[in-house]
Amino acid sequence: MSFEATGEGVDIGAFWRTLGERPIGATVVTTDSAEGPMGFLGLSAAHVTANPPTMLVSIDKKTSALAGVLDKEHFAVNFLPEGCAELAGMFGGKGEKVFEEGKWDTLASGAPVYKDALGVFDCKLEKVIEHGNTSIILGTVVGVRAAGEGAPLTFFRGKFLSD
After folding, report:
1. DSSP readout, 72-110?
2. pLDDT digits (tens, 9 = 90+) for 66-95
3. Contact 122/89 with Cβ under 8 angstroms?
4. Which CATH architecture best describes the domain 11-148?
5. Does residue 5 register a pLDDT over 70?
6. What is the DSSP string of 6-75?
7. What is the 3-state secondary structure (H, E, C) of 132-163?
8. Is the whole model's pTM more than 0.85, yes or no?
9. Distance (Å, whole) CA 77 – CA 79
10. How many CB atoms lie within 10 A of CB 106?
């Protein structure tokens, strides 16, 4: 269903529906905390610059993992491969056993990284920018890992595309 909204008519629903027209690779952002590893579905993850290598992630201020990122001052951005829609869904909600033993390890910062990720950026927290109900997290990349093969899990129009 197509639609158009302009001026004062651009409400949150119209914003999200339009944003959903952009297919993106599914990412999970992880950190650790006093309570153990935690993370969230980070569909806004993006690079900022290559010199110095820097990543950006937006996180709702109500997301519990934000406290871990701020406390430990590190996070990892994990690009999920196809076949991981269930895992991604767990990070988008209240999934149990998200950090299954044997599926995760760490790089330089100590943040959990998914062993089967297509790519991982391990980051040291550099800056937090507050905007509306969101914290924009900037991190300097301190470690990377790339699989070199495989297809991404893609999110489009509010759902993960079939594997």
Report:
1. H-EEEEEEPBTT-HHHHHHHHTT-SS-S-TTSEEE-SS-
2. 999 999 999 999 999 999 999 998 887 755
3. no
4. Roll (2.30)
5. no
6. -GGG--HHHHHHHHTTS-EE-EEEEEEETTEEEEEE-TT-EEEEETTEEEEEEEETT-THHHHHHHH-EE
7. CCEEEEEEEEEEEEECCCCCECEEECCEECCC
8. yes
9. 7
10. 16
